[in-house]
Design brief:
The chain is an alpha/beta fold. Helices cover 27% and strands 28% of the residues. The strands form three sheets. The chain has a six-stranded antiparallel beta barrel with strand order 12-15-14-13-16-17. A five-stranded parallel sheet has the order 3-2-1-4-7, sandwiched between helices. The protein has a four-stranded mixed sheet with strand order 9-8-11-10, with no helix packed on it. A hairpin with a 4-residue loop joins strand 10 and strand 11. The chain starts with a strand and ends with a strand.
């Protein structure tokens, strides 16, 4: 296998430390950074998740030069806009809460990285994601990272086996504090102290309303209603809300209320009690599984014991997975205990032990 690896550089600490580790292992690196979206907002420049700015692209280039390997900038702004941003806007316009990082990883990053790897004569690619890869019974799987607080397998469930065969995750066995220490030990003190951001790279300051308006989405106010349809008050536009939201509703009803449903067609946001957000059953579309035949053969049924996550920060909890309709891209999970705040548009990601075996988009 070739010792040349294509290293995806973001300008942040994780990809930089990944590069340091691979260089120490004797690999030859070629660095690439995607130009996906340009933001002129200064608030994103100091944050670790810096793919929203030209400054972070140049920082990635400087890091590669400092570490001694060549670096290339790949312009994917048009593709990113056509696929990731267009999907993000469309999903919010239909009252759903999308996960753009999932789509970007699968449709933009890995596709572009592998094509670039072929062009530069690289057998494999590497990124700074916190995840591991394992081979099990002839198939390649994602495994949870050692650092459970940073594990990013949730965002990578769409990756194919071919993607995984050619990918290295140098940080999968490390914790975030260890990564910061490695950067510090290599003389990158400022980088080791860079703060993190949970913002989506193309929506600085989490200003979804402003971003959607910039994309031409008309956000008009509408009615808050209860489960029976009774009008409770006025909201500022259904795009501004997500399932389970309690703060920032701008309405006083004498007791805490939560967003339990969003009706985009009527521009209505339903408010209810916390208990109304619990459910045992979750359905997903666009589903895919690793080794479906093997799962059926092993369990002798389409009802399979798994654990699953319904959002990034949720733990994987026990469930039974019905794969009767997997041929049409549908999954149904019944959780042992009810889960809270199931949100259409988010990912349903399924595991066995610490192996990611599939996922889908919550319907």
């Amino acid at each position: 296998m070739s010792s040349r690896i294509l290293m995806a550089m973001s300008g942040g600490i994780d990809s930089a430390v990944s590069a340091m580790l691979l260089l120490e292992q004797g690999y030859e690196l070629i660095g690439v950074t995607f130009r996906t979206f340009d933001s002129i907002r200064e608030s994103c420049l100091a944050k670790e998740k810096g793919c929203c700015s030209i400054d972070s692209i140049m920082e990635a280039k400087r890091l590669a030069e400092t570490l001694g390997f060549e670096h290339h900038i790949l312009d994917f702004r048009q593709t990113f806009r056509e696929h990731v941003i267009a999907n993000f806007v469309d999903e919010y316009s239909h009252g759903r809460t999308p996960n753009p990082c999932v789509l970007c990883n699968s449709h933009i990053k890995w596709g572009a990285l592998l094509r670039a790897a072929d062009e530069f004569g690289c057998e494999r690619i590497a990124t700074g994601h916190y995840a591991r890869i394992a081979e099990y019974e002839g198939h390649y799987y994602l495994r949870n990272a050692v650092d459970t607080h940073k594990d990013q397998t949730y965002f990578l469930w769409m990756l194919t086996e071919e993607n995984l065969r050619r990918t290295i995750f140098p940080l999968g066995g490390l914790t975030k504090p260890e990564v910061r220490q490695i950067a510090f030990n290599h003389g990158f003190e400022a980088l080791s102290k860079k703060t993190e951001s949970q913002e989506i790279c193309f929506v600085p300051d989490n200003d979804y309303r402003g971003f959607l308006q910039e994309q031409g989405v008309c956000i008009a106010g509408g009615n808050y209603v209860d489960a029976a349809g009774k009008i409770l008050g006025q909201h500022t536009g259904f795009c501004n809300y997500t399932i389970g939201q309690r703060k920032g509703l701008g309405i006083a009803l004498g007791a805490p209320k939560y967003v339990t449903h969003i009706n985009a067609e009527k521009n209505e946001v339903t408010l209810g009690e916390n208990d109304e957000l619990f459910t045992h059953e979750v359905k997903a579309t666009e589903a895919r599984l690793r080794d479906t035949e093997g799962l059926q053969k092993h369990f002798g049924t389409t009802d399979i014991p798994v654990t699953a996550r319904i959002r990034y920060k949720s733990p994987a909890v026990p469930a039974r997975m019905d794969i009767t309709d997997i041929g049409t891209g549908k999954l149904r999970l019944c959780f042992e205990k009810p889960v809270w705040g199931v949100t259409p548009g988010q990912s349903l990601v399924v595991y066995q032990d610490d192996r990611l075996i599939g996922g889908g988009i919550i319907a």
